[in-house]
Amino acid sequence: MLLKGIPASPGVAIGKVFILDSEAYTIIRREISERDLPREIARFEDALIQTRQEILGIQERISEQLGIKHAEIFNAHLLVLEDRTLIEDVIARLKKELVCVEYVFDDVLKNYMSAFQKVEDEYLRERVADIRDIGKRILLHLLGKKRETLADIGEKVIVIAYDLSPSDTASLHKKNVIAFATDIGGKTSHTAIMAKALEIPAVVGLKSVTKSVKSGATIIVDGSNGLVITDPDQETLAKYEQAKTKIAEFDASLTHLRDLPCVTRDGHQVHLSANIEIPDEMPSVKSHGANGIGLYRTEFFYLDRVDFPTEEEQYEAYKNVAEKTAPDYVVIRTFDLGGDKFMSQLKIPKEMNPFMGWRAIRFCLARPDIFKVQLRAILRASAHGKLKIMYPMISGVEELREANKLLGEMKDELRRENVPFDQNVETGAMIEVPSAAMTADILAREVDFFSIGTNDLIQYSLAVDRVNEKIAYLYEPAHPAVLRLIKSVIDIGHKTNIWVGMCGEMAGDPVFTLLLLGFGLDEFSTSPVNIPVIKQIIRSVDYKTAQQIANEALTLSTGTEIEEFAARKLRELVPDLQ
Ligand code: PEP
Ligand code: MG
């Protein structure tokens, strides 16, 4: 069976299905006598100890693979294990009711979760998931069953889930999880972005993949084309084995591009830089041949944690990335919290329209205590390399002025303290809200560069939620409205002498490279895995030809026509592309 979803991260994987959270168990109410009490209590204590060891083991593995930050996600689980109220409640009821401990524990746990679900405090409510998870682990120990988890899967599997959060994705065991596929999600969701960062093929938005596959069955995930094939026959398996080999050969053939400049055949140079979420991606940035970093999504500091990152901690991270990237630049984007990213940790109530809500620069300007710490950390790190500062989700010039004013205050503070920083650090605005695109001439007076965030710009200008798979067909980067906005921002940038980059996913999609190049985009910034192919395209064409193609595209009426036209031109001009 062939299931069609949304391509989230390229590559092909063939392997066995692991359905996340499908483990079923039954709890039977078994009466005990007073004599059995010590044994039941001992079983409970054993289960707690074993669960604790299990969690510590997982933490250790995650820490080795992805760093200590990612391992800290399990601290909340450990706290539940030490919760005296929960433990004492179980023991008291055990003595009173004289039924087996798994039954009592399950009941206490359910009461506990429902109490948490009712509290006002959003942060506490969010902890229900941790309690459920740890509770399940304890129960499985009590029942003598072993729970398979992503972290301790011993063989290579393909994870199938209804949904994975960005932090679930970050904790996937890269060695053993060779691909994943989910029922919901969109191409530019941060889960998809994380999959690319980990270089794991992924398909999202498959609607009912969890119902169409069985644990242990062999499936194929084609992340490049957004396909999942269940029960493949020998012929299909052979075809995809071949495809895998071809992709590997193609990737290997692109490595020679790593040290070559990103320049068209007729000498037009563009900047090709990488997007990163966590500093651990630095080796991948280098190995794929990026010229620096065009987007560092710093809000990933909030992944898997409940406290605020300190100035020192941020300074160390920014300094590290700056030093490793020098003499190339790093564009540090200030916290873009909200939307589908990490607001729950900040105890902020859920909103009806989180993508249009209290997020990004709106949040930072309302919380100068958090924002100023980040600005100081970036400024201090700017003494160690070439950093640029970029503000997300600017919708009008007041926000930009306000952000720059706070930045000025932080500079004054550092001067007074005699702390060195780059006095000429550039600032830029993300152009990802239509009002910003339409007032780019006004914004240009306040900044040194623009970076077009198409992930959001498309969702706002077309009114299409970027993470909703049901309307994914409407999410069209090549919609004439989107292309006109992009072209106009680039033209205004050039008229006002500032450079214009793009850090949305569109910049890494080969189908659109000719159009963006032809519009005169100065910088393409994308996930490291996309870098070689974009460089190959740019190096294979003339700038003049790309300009003609881009102009012709603007005369077409629909996104589909434009995309088909761009794909045809790409095949003609770069026939050896995969
Ligand atoms: C964008 O919106 O295009 C962008 C790069 O930012 P993010 O995906 O983090 O919202
Ligand atoms: Mg954005």
Describe this structure in words.
- The protein has 578 residues and is of the alpha/beta class.
- The chain has 3 domains: 2-19 and 149-251, Glucose Oxidase, domain 1 (3-Layer(bba) Sandwich); 34-143, PtsI, HPr-binding domain (Enzyme I, Chain A, domain 2), CATH 1.10.274.10; 266-573, Phosphoenolpyruvate-binding domains (TIM Barrel, Alpha-Beta Barrel).
- It is 47% helix and 13% strand.
- It is built from 24 helices and 16 strands.
- Strands 1-8-7-3-4-5-6-2 form an 8-stranded mixed sheet.
- α13 (311-325) links the parallel β10 (293-297) and β11.
- α5 runs antiparallel to α7.
- The protein is globular and about 90 Å long.
- The structure holds phosphoenolpyruvate and magnesium ion.
- Magnesium ion (MG) binds next to α19.
- Residues 392, 432, 453, 455-456 line the site of magnesium ion (MG).
By DSSP, the count of extended strands is 16
In the CATH hierarchy, what is the class of the largest domain? Answer: Alpha Beta
| Mean pLDDT over the residues | 89
Task: Indicate the radius of gyration in whole angstroms.
Answer: 26 Å
Biggest sheet descriptor: 8 strands, mixed
Q: How much helical structure, as a percent, in the residues? A: 40-55%
Low-confidence stretches: none
Tell me the name of the CATH homologous superfamily of the largest domain. Answer: Phosphoenolpyruvate-binding domains
CATH architecture of the largest domain: Alpha-Beta Barrel
Overall 3D form:
globular
Q: If helices are DSSP runs of H or I spanning 4 or more residues, what is the number of helices? A: 24
Distance between the first and last residues' Cα: 25 Å
Which range does the strand content fall in? Answer: 5-15%
Bound molecules: phosphoenolpyruvate, magnesium ion
Structural class by secondary-structure content: alpha/beta
For the biggest β-sheet, the strand order reads 1-8-7-3-4-5-6-2
CATH topology of the largest domain: TIM Barrel
How many domains make up the coordinates? 3
